[in-house]
Design the sequence.
């Protein structure tokens, strides 16, 4: 099981092999964390994503990191579920995002990975439940990744992730 820690900050500035983006099915960029990662990585990221699209919710694929600063070598695009009240498989889909991202990280040889809070922005997944799912799925997924950093954009998400990690 990887070491897991939680930080508040800018995921594009993390010192890791791969960063995960909360992507949409087109993999061409969007708002929130996905938009920030696409802006930092440059326009080649959208072109690389488009070549792999569509990506179904719960799945993940990797591209090069392009203009992101080393050591970041890869962006893992994970498509989260749109929250529809919880009765449409959203929990399983979100769990799959974290599991598949770790599997993809293993495939590309990433030993350190940074995750955002997937699906908690415009997709509307309740942040407290999402934090629990993130931590429990990462802990339960066999992986060669040695270190996972959960990166929160704001204080509320940071506190929820810390509580999930230590709860």
Sequence:
């Amino acid at each position: 099981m990887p070491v897991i820690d939680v930080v508040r900050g800018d995921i594009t500035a993390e010192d890791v092999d791969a960063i995960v983006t909360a992507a949409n099915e087109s993999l061409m960029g969007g708002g929130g964390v996905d938009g920030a990662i696409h802006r930092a990585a440059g326009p080649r990221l959208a072109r690389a994503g488009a070549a792999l699209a569509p990506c179904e919710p719960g799945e993940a694929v990797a591209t090069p990191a392009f203009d992101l600063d080393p050591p970041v070598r890869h962006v893992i695009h994970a498509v989260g579920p749109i929250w529809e009240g919880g009765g449409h498989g959203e929990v399983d889909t979100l769990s799959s995002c974290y599991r598949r991202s770790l599997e993809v990280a293993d495939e590309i040889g990433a030993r350190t990975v940074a995750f955002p809070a997937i699906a908690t922005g415009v997709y509307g997944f309740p942040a407290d439940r999402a934090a629990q799912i993130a931590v429990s799925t990462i802990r339960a997924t066999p992986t060669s990744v040695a270190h996972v950093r959960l990166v929160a954009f704001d204080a509320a998400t940071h506190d929820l992730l810390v509580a999930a990690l230590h709860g």
In short: The chain has a mean pLDDT of 97. The beta strands are 3-8, 18-23, 60-64, 74-79, 112-115, 147-152. The two ends are 17 Å apart (CA to CA).
